């Protein structure tokens, strides 16, 4: 059987050769995580993912989660997988050991987690959300709240959610109507209805902790009057045992296109007038507190997207290597060949390969910037790494998830008709990954965040820092004769990207903000393409250096594959990127000028 | 009880395409992902469970190169107490008998009540356990699917034999047992275990330290060829989901007079 979920050689390449993640162990906070430990963590995560998590993927899709009488049941197979992850302490890899985490570098934690996510993204969503909820408590909770919740959540004893969205408050959370009224004991009575709550109810753990966005009675309208509350499913007694049931109930789950193995719940708070919650952080700061966690959540979506795209690629590759159909073009014997011999199949496979590799490098890079920001003593370096994280988060979430959908679609295409059937896993991956461009801020929001916030922050320093990093990689690549031309092309595209950014910025400030933002998504694609090109050039440079020095025979095909990925991207995708840049610079206003009636359909 | 478990590093067949090399005398090993031999995992798990019941320690041992350190560390992360790596250029050419001779030398340096091996490894010969027992002049049972400690310096051992039958034996200690899969459910390695072994030094013993010579480990078996047998005729693969396959099978059995 061929490798599944992720190519181990590529994971090792990114961790060790591109980012030297073992070197982080030179710093005291990561001292335990030397190269040997890094390898063991990846090996065991992969082992558990392949043997225990992956087998739950199809059953999660086909049996799915069931709702009845305010309760949700998950497939039986989930319980064992959950227990194994909890027993193995895989739930909160990068968090502080003091509060139940494992203290790993983010880069390593992400690499391990992408194996689990590739095993079953829907199942892992519950852990991701728990992590996010616990992070809110870790950052904004009182000492008492931290003591009450953190270890129980980070160890998988309890789970967490995020109760943000309401029927009329989705992307615009300022419009929410859930209310909070202060009680004499310091708690708040919460009343409202939330929708689209991942793992809002389930039977995997004894308690569920809901961070809830609500407006305190008398607070300002809009986003400035929103506070955050902790609403446990079961109250917690002073001794840590569970008390009475809180008045927070699931009223149904969504029938969705994919991630059937994750219950997407409607939640009613206070329908019997008895829902109690406790303020988390400061009054009226709920939304800004929640958004401090957004980088992490969005990077998680980038990791999910990568996992699905990587899985789909490896399934397609294996199929193409074994499926015999038609003789290769120009073959003399006319004997039917495996379809990997056909040019269009090779085009699709190489497209999947290069995007998966570029995505893996990008997503791991952002996690690595977070680690480097923690380990460097230099204030300037800390700021630079933070800037790189900030500007690349919308790319990790927005661009990567869009391309992951494309790559999962290509995976089906390689299979042909078989890929469209449920006999093969690629169709489920396509349905599952389709949520990634939507949740945790739609990709339209990501593009607006990039264009409207990130480019303007610190007088454009974020983009400058990104350009500086790209230039460093270009300079290294130019030292290798065979990469010089590719490096020039990447440098040229990066410069044009900067000009496009300046042009859109000027367009917006010149009073044509609607026109500028109609090009936010194409602009995000441009930044994404250039970032992919940068990552692939970086990889090719490392590969070229290894080949020049005389790589081992077993490593040569991998390194040569890196050169081909970079070449294919720069020569087949970057020219399209230049076209996108021309389009953005032209700034066609048709999309915002067209009269609403002119869309027709009435 | 002092338990020695012999383990080995093999290509992970769950995730590798196994192909013959161009010379046709071995599999192509360059690009393979390796892991601990599956049978050995069961042996280590059994050893850990026995130690946890009656006390003592579990030592894992392997013959291999530097990279074999990783499987010893892995089995220690599972719960084994000590690891020993037997490594020497001279060992590279060892066949099953040679491996048994190396292990015998190492086992003789300790004082073990129980020596476990996996029932077989990638090559499928299943020879090392039996040879090791013979060299140590110890009683031996193969294909072991249950072990129960007796109080009188012996163990009750269940062996898997033909037709799903289990044969029970009482064997005096010390002895050598080769462990069949299914005897237990090997635990997964978690972060706590990885942490525990992160900085453990695993001693390495060379041929001279073991007190043996090249001739003890030289191979007396020469592998001549590897080949994939030609596809025979007469087999028909039934396709479809389970229900469809069952229906087709019943139809065929009826047609051939197998059932009425």
Topology, please?
The complex is a heterodimer of chains A (602) and B (260).
Chain A: H1 8-18, H2 35-53, H3 55-62, E1 66-68, E2 71-73, H4 76-87, H5 106-119, H6 121-140, H7 143-154, E3 158-160, E4 179-182, E5 188-198, E6 207-216, E7 226-232, E8 234-236, E9 242-245, E10 248-253, E11 264-269, E12 276-279, H8 286-292, H9 294-322, E13 324-327, E14 336-338, H10 343-375, H11 379-415, H12 426-433, H13 443-454, H14 461-478, H15 484-509, H16 513-517, H17 520-548, H18 556-586, H19 590-593
Parallel strand pairs in A: 3-6, 4-6
Antiparallel strand pairs in A: 1-2, 4-5, 5-11, 5-12, 6-7, 7-12, 8-9, 10-11, 13-14
Helix pairs in contact in A: 1-10, 2-5, 5-6, 5-9, 5-10, 6-7, 6-9, 9-10, 9-11, 9-12, 10-11, 10-17, 10-18, 11-12, 11-13, 11-14, 11-17, 13-17, 14-15, 14-17, 15-17, 15-18, 17-18
Chain B: E1 2-6, E2 9-11, E3 34-36, H1 38-54, E4 57-63, H2 69-78, E5 82-86, H3 96-108, E6 114-118, H4 128-136, E7 140-149, E8 154-161, E9 165-172, E10 175-179, H5 191-197, E11 204-205, H6 207-210, H7 214-217, H8 242-255
Parallel strand pairs in B: 1-4, 1-6, 4-5, 5-11, 6-10, 7-10
Antiparallel strand pairs in B: 2-3, 7-8, 8-9
């Amino acid at each position: 059987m061929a490798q599944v979920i992720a190519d181990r050689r590529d994971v090792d390449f990114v961790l060790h050769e591109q980012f030297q993640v073992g070197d982080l162990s030179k710093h005291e906070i990561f001292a335990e995580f030397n190269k040997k430990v890094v390898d063991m963590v990846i090996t065991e995560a992969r082992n558990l993912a392949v043997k225990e998590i992956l087998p739950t993927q199809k059953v999660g899709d086909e049996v799915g989660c069931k709702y009845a009488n305010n309760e949700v049941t998950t497939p039986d197979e989930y319980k064992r997988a959950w227990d194994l992850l909890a027993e193995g302490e895989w739930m909160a890899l990068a968090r502080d050991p003091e509060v139940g985490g494992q203290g790993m570098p983010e880069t390593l934690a992400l690499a391990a987690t992408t194996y689990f996510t590739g095993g079953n993204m829907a199942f892992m969503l519950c852990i991701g959300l728990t992590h996010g909820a616990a992070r809110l408590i870790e950052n904004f909770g009182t000492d008492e709240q931290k003591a009450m919740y953190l270890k129980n959540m980070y160890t998988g004893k309890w789970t967490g959610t995020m109760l943000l969205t309401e029927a009329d408050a989705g992307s615009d959370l300022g419009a929410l109507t859930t209310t909070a009224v202060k009680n004499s004991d310091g708690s708040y009575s919460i009343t409202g209805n939330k929708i689209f709550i991942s793992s809002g109810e389930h039977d995997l753990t004894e308690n569920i902790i809901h961070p809830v966005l609500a407006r305190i009675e008398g607070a300002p309208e809009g986003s400035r009057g929103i506070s955050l509350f902790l609403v446990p499913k079961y109250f917690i007694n002073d001794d840590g045992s569970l008390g009475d049931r809180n008045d927070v109930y699931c009223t149904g789950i969504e029938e969705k296109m994919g991630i059937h193995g994750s219950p997407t719940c409607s939640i009613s708070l206070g329908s019997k007038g008895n829902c109690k919650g406790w303020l988390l952080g400061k009054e009226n700061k709920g939304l800004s507190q929640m958004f401090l966690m957004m980088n992490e959540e969005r990077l998680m979506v980038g990791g999910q997207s990568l996992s699905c795209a990587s899985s789909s690629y490896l399934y397609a590759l294996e199929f193409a290597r074994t499926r015999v159909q038609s003789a290769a073009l120009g073959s003399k014997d006319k004997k039917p060949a495996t379809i990997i011999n056909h040019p269009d199949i090779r085009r699709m496979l190489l497209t999947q390969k290069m995007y998966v590799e570029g995505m893996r490098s990008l997503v791991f890079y952002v996690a690595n910037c977070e680690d480097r920001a923690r380990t460097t003593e230099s204030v300037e370096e800390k700021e630079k790494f933070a800037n790189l994280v900030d500007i690349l988060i919308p790319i990790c979430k927005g661009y990567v998830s869009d391309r992951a959908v494309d790559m999962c679609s290509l995976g089906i295409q390689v299979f042909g008709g078989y890929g469209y059937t449920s006999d093969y896993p690629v169709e489920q991956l396509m349905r599952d990954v389709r949520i990634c461009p939507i949740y945790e801020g739609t990709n339209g929001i990501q593009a607006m965040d990039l264009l409207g916030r990130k480019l303007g922050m610190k007088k454009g320093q974020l983009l400058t820092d990104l350009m500086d990093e790209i230039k460093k990689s270009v300079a290294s690549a130019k030292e290798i004769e065979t990469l010089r031309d590719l490096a020039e092309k990447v440098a040229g595209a990066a410069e044009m990207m900067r000009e496009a950014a300046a042009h859109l910025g000027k367009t917006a400030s010149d009073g044509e903000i609607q026109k500028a933002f109609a090009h936010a998504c194409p602009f995000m694609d441009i930044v994404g393409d250039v970032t992919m090109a940068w990552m692939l050039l970086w990889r090719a440079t490392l590969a070229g250096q290894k080949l020049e020095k005389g790589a081992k025979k077993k490593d040569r095909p991998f390194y040569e594959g890196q050169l081909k990925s970079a070449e294919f991207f720069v020569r087949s995708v970057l020219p399209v990127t230049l076209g996108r840049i021309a389009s953005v610079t032209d700034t066609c206003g048709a999309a915002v000028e067209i009269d609403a009636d002119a869309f027709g359909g009435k | 009880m002092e338990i020695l478990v012999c383990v080995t590093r093999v290509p992970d067949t769950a995730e590798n395409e196994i192909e013959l090399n161009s010379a046709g005398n071995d599999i192509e090993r360059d690009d393979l992902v390796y892991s601990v031999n599956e049978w050995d995992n069961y042996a280590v798990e059994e050893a850990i469970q026995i130690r946890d019941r009656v006390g003592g320690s579990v030592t894992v041992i392997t013959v291999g190169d530097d990279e074999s350190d990783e499987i010893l560390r892995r089995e220690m992360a599972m719960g084994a107490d000590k690891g020993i790596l037997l490594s020497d250029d001279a060992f590279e050419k060892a066949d099953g008998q040679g491996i048994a001779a190396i292990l015998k030398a190492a086992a003789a340096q300790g004082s073990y009540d129980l020596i476990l091996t996996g029932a077989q490894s990638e090559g499928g010969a299943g020879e090392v356990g039996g040879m090791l027992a013979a060299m140590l002049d110890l009683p031996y049972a193969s294909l072991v699917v249950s072990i129960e400690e007796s109080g009188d310096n012996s163990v009750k051992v269940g062996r898997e034999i033909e037709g799903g039958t289990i044969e029970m034996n009482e064997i005096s200690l010390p002895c050598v047992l080769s462990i069949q899969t299914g005897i237990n459910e090997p635990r997964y390695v978690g972060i706590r275990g990885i942490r525990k072994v992160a900085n453990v030094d695993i001693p390495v013993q060379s041929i001279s330290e073991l007190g043996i010579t090249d001739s003890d480990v030289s191979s007396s078996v020469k592998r001549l060829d590897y080949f994939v047998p030609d596809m025979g005729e007469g087999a028909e693969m039934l396709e479809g989901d389970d229900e469809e396959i069952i229906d087709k099978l019943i139809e065929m059995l009826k047609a051939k007079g197998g059932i009425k």
